[in-house]
Amino acid sequence: MSAQSDKREIFFEFTRMDKNMRVCAVDSVTGIEIVTIVPTSMPESEAQKLALKKLLWRLDRENESAEEGGDALHRPCGKYV
């Protein structure tokens, strides 16, 4: 395990929107952010697990891209259009 992954933290933000909950997960190392929408009836722990799973999938996808010569993980944090 690299020193970079030892310092990795995942931040979660929950925002209620009527009958839905917006769950945002952000990786502290890369700044990659995902958003998922779940029903408010879903327990917060389950919503967090779902968002984490989606974020890990995205990080794996970014790593594959970087291995193929892309620079996805070496870009500075922020949004790209």
Structure description:
The protein has 81 residues and is an alpha+beta fold. The radius of gyration is 14 Å and the shape is elongated. A hairpin with a 2-residue loop joins strand 1 (10-17) and strand 2. It has two helices and three strands, in the order H-E-E-E-H. It has a three-stranded antiparallel sheet with strand order 1-2-3. The chain has one domain. 35% of the residues lie in helices and 28% in strands.
Our count of domains comes out at 1
Unreliable stretches (pLDDT < 50, length at least 5) are none
Number of E-state strands: 3
Q: Going across the biggest sheet, name each strand in turn.
A: 1-2-3
Binned strand content: 25-35%
Q: Can you write the helix and strand succession as a string?
A: HEEEH
Q: Sheet bearing the most strands, described?
A: 3 strands, antiparallel
Molecular shape = elongated
**Would you tell me the overall average pLDDT?**
84
Oligomer description: single chain
Supply the number of helical segments: 2
Helix coverage percent of residues?
25-40%
Structural class computed from helices and strand pairing: alpha+beta
Rg, Å, rounded: 14 Å
Quote the distance from N terminus to C terminus: 32 Å
